[in-house]
Fold this protein.
Amino acid sequence: MFVPKLEKLMGMEVYATSSFGVGGVIRQFVDDFVVEEILVDGSKAELKWSDKPKVLGSSAERKRYPLCVLVKRNWDTFLAIKAIAEQLGINANDIHFAGIKDAKAVTAQYITLDGVSAEEVLKANVKDIEIHPIGYLRHKISAYYLLGNSFNITIRSINHSKSSIKKRMEKIIEESKAVGGIPNFFGHQRFGTVRPITHIVGKALVKGNFKKAIMLFLAKPSPYEHPESRKAREQLKKTQDFRHALKSFPKKLHYEHLMLKHLAQKPQDFAGAFRRLPIKLRELFPQAYQAYLFNKFLSKRIAERLPLNKAEVGDYIVSVQRSGLPLLTMYKVVKAETLAEINEAMKAGRLQLALPLIGFRQKTSEGIQGEVEKQILEKEGITIENFKIKNMPEISPRGELRTALTPLKNFQLKEVCADAANPSKNMAKISFALHRGSYATVLLREIMKPRNLLKAGF
């Protein structure tokens, strides 16, 4: 089955389902992609705010972190946090969140703040951002508190009939449920679709080549980005004149400007320029390269017809908590003598197959899967030791495991109807929930099987 070249560049080389997709377009309008965060205690950050919200935390905890629901529309998470921090006169690092949310979407998520009261939070006034204080937490919010996300998505501009859309979608969901979920690929936003460079910048950092990383980030143009940005990057690539680039780069390229200001003064200090970026953003680059390698490992496993819901000798398997979340630190390597017992436990939902996110403390699998992973690393020219980044140890990824599948929860095809925004076309409204760290776009690629990712809104 045809897989777009752009996806192959992200390591997603195959589909897990063989049924035909419905096609169509996501994110034609911002409201077509709605995300609401769910915490492990069942609390949901709701988009439509009630006058009497549930207050989390007791009065005894009111001495610490104000807990708020952040609703943003068409905002990058990091830029939204920065804008709020500027309004409140605090450092962006004093605002904590559990997960990064889609930029081209309407999203609701929990945040905690340090150094301000719940009353002071209400002073923030940023376009297309709402902040609703709901209580206090003793600890700052983090991924530890996050169960996952609930999605409400509209797929527009579908050429097929309503009955065909319904049948195709039902078949894909049946196939997914038969293997226990959807492949847990890292989705498109981890790499970028307009300019998918995050992982290749990450590879340069992992290899210790900061100059290459900087030049990829600043000067690698994309045919899909705004012509003004593309022209500025092409010129910098040709001249390597950082002072001129500082004047010619569009102001909207905020992170590029941070780097260029540093390089205009210290043109050889590439590590210093990279340190101008927020630490959480810097960490994303080597993490994106880890994600690319994981996607390659998972693609090859699917292509080799190795099972995702059963273990082979040498595979990693992890325990599953009551919440359904995998306990990634509770792992085993499957031995021949324990294979049957482990597969019974997997069938009962107590264990899950996991693949490595390679880092300086995370080794490859063993057995057949291990051979697959070692071949990919060899072809990439990468060793586990490379992930200890000498000149920037603070972004060195230790590595961990990640489940090969993620469960699909509460999937509903809510409506199939005529699409008023695209005459003679139909649209489908779907809702579902995924665990933290899993991507809605990975399910959507299975459902839609897009031929052109950018036209399809990915």
